[in-house]
Amino acid sequence: MTTPDTGATRAVPAREDGPAARPAPPPKEATARAGRRGPADPVRSLMHRHQELCARAVDALEIAAGLEAHGVTDRTAARFRHRDVFSLAEELYARVPRADPEGARPDGPGHPPARPAQGPGGVRGVLQLLPGAVCVAALAAVASVGAAPPAVRSAVGAAGGVLLALAVRLAVRSGPLRLRHRGAGPWTAGLWVCWTAGYAVYGDWLLEQLLAGGPDLPHTAPRAAVATAVALSFALAPAAGCARWFAARGRRGLAASRDLGELAARIRPLLLAATVLFLGALVALLLGADAAFGGDGRTAMAAAAALGVLLFLARLLAVHGFPAAAATGVAAAAALEALALSLVLIARLPGMPPLDVPVEALTTAVGPAAVPAVACTAAAVGLLVYGLRALTGACAHRPAPSGPAEAQRP
After folding, report:
1. What does DSSP assign to residue 97?
2. What is the pLDDT of residue 381?
3. Of 299, 284, 333, 297, which Cα lies nearest the Cα of 313?
4. Which of 142, 195, 165, 137 is nearest to 379 (CA)?
5. Which of 107, 92, 102, 31 is nearest to 57 (CA)?
C-alpha cells in the first residue's frame, strides 16, 4: 500500500515538471525566438520591444549598448539577419523616428493637428533658383560697364562673384541639400568646391595662357566661360529636386525592406537613377546656356557636366552622413587640376621642359577643357562607386523629421 502511494506521489511532480510547466526562457532566448518565429520583417518586433530606447537614443552606439544590456549578442543579431549588434542598432536607429526632446506631442488635446506649411516649399524653390538669377545679374552688370576702366570692371566682377558665392551658400543650407549636423565634414571642403568651380570658369583660359608663356597680367583680361557659369548656377534647382526624390524613395525602401541585402538592392538603382536624372537636367541647362551665351565646344560642355555630377554626388554623400568621403572626391579633382597647372609652370625651370609634355599633348589633341573633364570624371566615378556601397546602409536613410519646427524650416 505504501509503495503505490509513494509512486503516485512522485508521479505528480514528474508531470508538473514536464513541458507544460517549463519555466519562462531568459530574455536572450526570447529575443532569439522572436527572430526565428517573427513576421516577414524580423526587426519590427524588436522595434516595438525597444521603442523608447531607440526613440531617445542620440546615435546608433547608444542603441547597441542598450541592446547588449538587454542580452542581445552578435549571435542573436544574426537571427535578425544582421552580422553584429551594431549593424542591428544602425537599422533600429534609422527606422525609429526620434522622440520630441520636449517630451510633448504636437498633436494632443491642447495642440491642433500639424498641417504641412505651403510657404517653405516656395521659399526653398526661390532660394535654389537664386544663384542662377544672381549669376545672370552679375553678367549683365559686367556687360553694362564694358566701356569703364579695367579696375571698375574687375570690381564689378568681384562683387558679382561674392554675391554668387553667398547665394550658393544660402541655397545649399536649406531644403534637401542641407547637412544634418552643423560643422559636418572637414573645413577645407568649401575650398575644394571653390577651386573646382573657379577652374570651370577661368581654368581653360589660364591653362592656354600658361602654355603660351603668359599670362601677361594686368594687360590681359581673364576670359570667363559664361555658359558654364550660368548652367552650373541654375543646376542647384534640379540637384535639390533629385536629392529630395532620392531621400524620399530611400526612406520608403528602408521601411519596405526586410534586411540589409534587400535594402541595398533597392537603393542602388535609386542612386543611379538620381544621378542620370540630374545629368540629363544639367545637359539641358548647358545646351540652353550655350545657345544663349555661346560656348567653348563639346569638351568644355563635357567638363562642366562632369563637374556638376561630381558636386551633386559629393553633396548627396555629405547630406546622408559621409562628408569626409565627399570632400575627398572633390579634393582629388582639385588636386589633378592644380597638378596640370603646376607641371606647366615647373617646366619653365631649366632642365624641366619635359614635365609639361602630357598636359600639352592632351590640350593640343582635345583642348584645354580636357584637363577638368578627365579630373572631374575620374573623381565622380570614384564617388559613385563609393556611394553604391555607402548609401545602401540603413544609417544613411533616417526617417523624415516630423516636428513642427523642422516642417516649417526653409
Report:
1. P
2. 97
3. 333
4. 195
5. 92
* pTM as predicted: 0.74
Cα maximum dimension of the chain: 128
* 236 contacts: CB under 8 Å, gap ≥ 6: 128, 129, 131, 132, 168, 171, 172, 177
Report yes or no: 167 and 134 within 8 Å, Cβ to Cβ: yes
Q: In Å, what is the CA distance from 318 to each residue of 94, 125, 180, 200, 306?
A: 17, 21, 9, 22, 18
Q: Is 108 helix (H, G, I), strand (E, B) or coil?
A: strand
Q: How far apart are CA 145 and CA 380, in angstroms?
A: 38
User: Comparing C-alpha atoms, which of 190, 192, 158 is closest to residue 338?
Assistant: 192
Q: Helices 85-95 & 236-256, crossing angle to 10 degrees? A: 120
- The answer for residues whose C-beta is within 8 angstroms of residue 140's C-beta and 6 or more apart is none
Closest CA to 185 of 57, 285, 321: 321
d(CA 107, CA 285): 44
Chain CA centroid to CA 156, Å: 34
Partners of 363 in the beta sheet?
A: none
> Buried (b) or exposed (e) across 32-44, using 16+ Cβ within 10 A?
bebbeeeeebbbe
| Inter-residue contact 49 to 266 (CB < 8 Å) | no
Query: C-alpha grid cell for residue 269?
Result: 538603382
Mean pLDDT by 10 residues, the chain (410 residues): 44 42 48 45 79 76 75 81 78 74 43 43 81 93 82 87 92 86 70 94 91 77 88 95 93 78 88 96 94 86 96 95 92 95 90 84 91 96 95 73 45
Helices (H), 174-322: 189-211, 226-234, 236-256, 260-293, 298-319
End-to-end CA distance of the chain: 90
Which amino acid, one-letter code, is at 42?
Answer: P
Angle between helices 236-256 and 226-234 (to 10 degrees): 40
Instruction: Return the CA Rg of the chain.
Output: 30
Contact 240, 124 (CB under 8 A): yes
CA atoms of 223 and 220, how far apart (whole Å): 9
Q: What are phi and psi of 111, to 5 degrees?
A: -125, 130
User: Rounded CA gap, 323 and 186, in Å?
Assistant: 7
Encoded amino acid at 150, one letter: P
